[in-house]
Design brief:
Elements (H helix, E strand, L loop, with lengths): L4 H21 L4 H24 L9 H5 L6 E6 L4 E5 L6 H17 L7 H20 L3 H10 L1 H11 L4 H29 L7 H7 L6 E2 L2 E2 H16 L8 H8 L2 H26 L1 H27 L4 H21 L6 H36 L24 H4 L1 H14 L6 H16 L1 H7 L1 H18 L15 H19 L2 H19 L3
Antiparallel strand pairs: 1-2, 3-4
Helix pairs in contact: 1-2, 1-5, 2-4, 2-5, 4-5, 4-12, 4-15, 4-21, 5-6, 5-7, 6-8, 7-8, 8-10, 8-11, 10-12, 11-14, 12-14, 12-15, 13-14, 13-19, 13-20, 14-15, 14-18, 14-20, 15-17, 15-18, 15-21, 15-22, 17-20, 17-21, 18-19, 18-21
Amino acid sequence: MENNILTILIFFPLVGILGMFIAYMLKQEDIVYKYIALFTTSIQLFLTGWLYLNFDPSILLNADVVQNPVKFAVQVPWIDNFNIQYFVGIDGLSAPLVFLTSLLMFLCIIASWDIKKHVFAYFSLFLLLNTGMMGVFLALDFFLFYIFWEVMLLPMYFLVGIWGGPERKYAAIKFFLYTLFGSVFLLLGMIALYYYSGLESFNLIALISAAPSITGALWGYEVKYLIWLALFIGFAIKVPVFPFHTWLPLAHVEAPTSISVILAGVLLKMGTYGLLRISYPLLPGEVVAFSYALAVLAVINIIWGATNAIAQRDLKKMVAYSSISHMGYVLLGMAAIVSTSAAGAQAGMNGAVMQMFNHGVITAMLFLLVGMLYDRAHHRWIVYPEDYHDEALAGKMGFGGVANKMPVFSTFVMIAFFAGLGLPGLSGFISEAFCFIGGFTAFKLITVIGTLGILLNAVYFLRAYQRIFWGDEGESTKDLKDITKREILILLPLLFLVVGLGVYPSPLIDMIEPAVQNVIDIVQAVL
């Protein structure tokens, strides 16, 4: 199984889709599709657990892989005429995200148990999305990477557009167009690398080795710079980096709960993962030249996302804008790779990769909790006393006193909010701290400005908690019931990771550190 486990992780969801199709042809009840999806994702999660137990953190996806395939890597010809390969592998950059994807997909299937509309289509699209995400994190051929990147687009478009809220069609189209726009730039960058590298290959490991020899000019600009810019735009839209962020809040608000979880927990991380997997090792000189601009964009993300979160009345939109802010921490840690301090560069990059994982867990928990509240109250308003006269809020006098009616739920929300604002002892703190440590060694003033995001995070999280969970019971609070055992079971694995990695982050650090150091060595070699 060792030689095929990555292939199984990628394509096993398609087996689940086939099983659901057979059940559909046999006119089975809707519950059958749910159990098939649950079985499929549980097997995938089990295999990911086995992979984690047998994973060697010293695995480095570098030039040696081409000559001596490392553990779990699979490299076979696919389209010989254009030297395209089925090439997959895993290292410390991708391993945490593979585990996160498997876990969130399994939990989201359980969270989607009450879906009643087009059940077969919903769970089939969910599993197709699963294949696309796994493929992106495991592909080591750029052409294969691009195919999986595009595979994700279609199921997400339909999942938002069919099962979303009142403005779901507009949100789905906006998401589709923004992502497709970015994909065009990825395609252009991929084609340019294919021709200008001299290899006529999409093999990412081989391209990294050949990258120093890429020369030439196009339209009066150095071709390396144009390739970097094309790839950056493609990945930045997915992060999203300001000013490409406007698709995200609407998509989150309109998407069903489980789709919001996957969107924030996994899809946003693909942008930063793409930069670390492709742009950084292939174009280290351009990374150095662009690092200051990346740090500035990171701080804009941090401040802009946080200030917009403060302004929101919709709890889900507040969490969506907080995601924009927290992805800024990832970008700041990534920019710190140019630090002249070896410890600073390592802290920043480790913090960035840790934040990708920790933010995925925290936001997944937040969106699940918001969805549970919405299922009971049928609205998500954070209503301020001065807004009671607003016609748009008529009859929605807010919550207040939810902690009295839902003490277990309120405890989960409190922990998730504190993790989001970076309370020491919870997972968000350690990764954010590393990002700031690294950032400060490279960009002192910019990083000092970025730390204002910590204060702003506390403002919107604590104010929302105070207005919803404390005080007198509001009109929307009277009939609320606490969360069920099924909902608690969904939240417990995420709670374990939030607290466990906050107290003892070494398992995550040990997993990512060798791969991160490999990227640092490549970039700092050009300094």
